[in-house]
Structures are given as C-alpha cells and as structure tokens.
Fold this protein.
Amino acid sequence: MTPQIIENGLFINLLNPVISGAASKAMTDEEVIEVYLATQNANYFNILYERYTAKVFGKCYSLLKNEAQAQDAAQEIFVKVLLSLSKFSGKSKFSTWLYSITYNFCIDVIRKNKKNIGVLVDDINAYGEVIIDEIEDSELMETNVIRLKAVLNKIPAGDKAILLMKYQDEFSIKEICGILNKSESAVKMKIKRAKEKFKKTYKELYIDVA
C-alpha cells in the first residue's frame, strides 16, 4: 500500500516527487490541472490548493461572517473541487470555476442556516433586456474602505457576493452569468438591485456622519 499523510485535509502521496517552487509557479492553473488528471499526483493538486486556499477562505468568511464556518466551508469546497476536477472544461478560467463552487456552496450554507433567506428568492428572470442603472460605479469605488466593509456586512449575502464579483474580482458580466447560471439581463438587474441596497444602507449608516 502506498504510504500517505494528510496535510491541510488533503492526501499527499509520499512516493510522488515533490514539485519545485519555481516549476509550480511557472505553470498555469490549466497546465497544473492537465498534469494532475494525467498523473493523479496529489502534489499538483496541492499547487492549486496553495494558490487559492486563502482566497477561498476569504470569500467564505465574507459571505458567512463566521470564521469556524468559513474554515469548514473552505475545506469542503476543496474536497468538492478535487472530486469534480475532471469536469472542469476550461471554457472559463479555473479561478472563475472555483469561485462559482465557492459562491454556490456558501449560499447553500446560508439557506440551511435560514439566514438572509429573502435575498435567495430569485424573482428577476421576468425582467426585459433593458436595465437602467442610475448609480454610478464610482459611488462604490470611491467609498471609504472602512465604510465600504461596514456597508457590505450589512447588506444581504447574495448582494454582497455579486458586488464583490464585479468590483473586487473584476469578473465580466459574462463570467458572472456563468457563475450564477443566469441570463445577462438577470445579472445586470441583480447588480443594479445590489447597488441600490448598498446606497440605501450607506445613507442609513452615514447620512448624519460628518
């Protein structure tokens, strides 16, 4: 039987060669995935884990607002990624695919916890293609960082997530459509509503603050 250890919740085959730091940094995510699927060398999966574990935890924490839940979620997400890696088609970037899994996993956790359930009821599919967004992006981008975090933590998780996708991760509308499995008009309406909630919450928190 091949000797194995468990590190950070992942199996590492002790008989597989260790990939040097320089070699791993030179490989794209897609190249790492291709080699991992061809060799099943767990060290290659660990390259992806090391690249994205902090980001996945950060996204989980920003949505779940609980460190222990975020840690558990991040570990479970990487298990799901490990089991589903053969299904990665390469049509989108690996980071986008990973974010999709992260977002959907965290929303499922929120559903189970029966928190922010109102934002999870999607009633925007009936809207037409013309979306009038009167809130300038600059209103969000120029917000004081401390106030920005405070407002994001006040609005529902789904709204916070889509704003982070657009303004922090700089995903395109097309990429967000893929993550949420929604039409372009639905995503635009979702962003518009999230921005409206952001502006409303900002005014409630800081309208009287000098």
About this structure: Residues 4-115 form a domain with the Rna Polymerase Sigma Factor; Chain: A fold (CATH 1.10.1740.10). The chain has two domains: 4-115, 120-206.
